[in-house]
Amino acid sequence: MVLIFVYGTLKRGQPNHCEMTTAKNGKAEYQGRGHTVVKFPLVIAGKYNIPFLLNVPGSGHHVKGEIYSIDNEMLQFLDKFEECPRVYQRTLEKVKIEEWEGASNLLSTDSPVGSIVEFFVYTTKSYIPEWLKLDCHENYDAYGAHGLTYIERINRSIDWPFNI
Fold first, then answer.
1. What is the pLDDT of residues 40-81, one digit of tens each?
2. Strand pairing partners for 66?
């Protein structure tokens, strides 16, 4: 099993969370919540209002998200889903644990709340420089007060990911 940290549409209650729970994609078990140790700019950008975690360490916020334990099948699915490595790059980042909830969570004994653990995170270096001027968010919610409606993949033109 591999540990990942998700901060956008894959979180519970968000438009793409169903991808984490679809058995044909592999296995994903929710483990808890945390936030990045290093600040990053989390922006909502492009014509589809996609959340992007820009790989610009030190600016932005300590981004909040969810921790999952996933199998290799789910990891391969997520790499394809996130257009890795063209749009997003899967990097190891330090996350401070805020809460453990996973029923089968062996990590909670080795890494209690408050611990810092490395997780895979999808960040991007493939962004338009103007995105650095956008509002940064600490916690993404597709239905948030920002008013930037996320456009689901099924409603996007075929130019994705190249015309984001």
1. 999 999 889 999 999 999 999 999 999 999 999 999 999 999
2. 6, 33
Full 3-state SS string of the chain: CEEEEECCCCCCCCCCCHHHHCHHHCCEEEEEEEEECCCECEEEECCCCEEEEECCCCCCECCEEEEEEECHHHHHHHHHHCCCCCCCEEEEEEEEEEEECCCCCCHHHHCCCCCEEEEEEEEECCCCHHHHHCCCCCCCCCCCCCCCCCCCHHHCCCCCCCCC
104-131 burial string, b = 16+ CB within 10 Å, else e?
ebebbeebeeeeebebbbbbbebbeeeb
CA–CA distance, 160 with 88 (Å, rounded to integer): 13
Query: For residues 50 and 164, is the Cβ–Cβ distance under 8 A?
Result: yes
Q: Choose between 124 and 162: higher pLDDT.
A: 124
Q: Which residues participate in catalysis according to the annotation? A: 82
Could you read off the pLDDT of 72-119 as tens digits, one per residue? 999 999 999 999 999 999 999 999 999 988 655 555 556 778 889 999
User: 36, 91, 27: which is closest to 60 by C-alpha?
Assistant: 36
Instruction: Tell me what pLDDT residue 157 has.
Output: 73
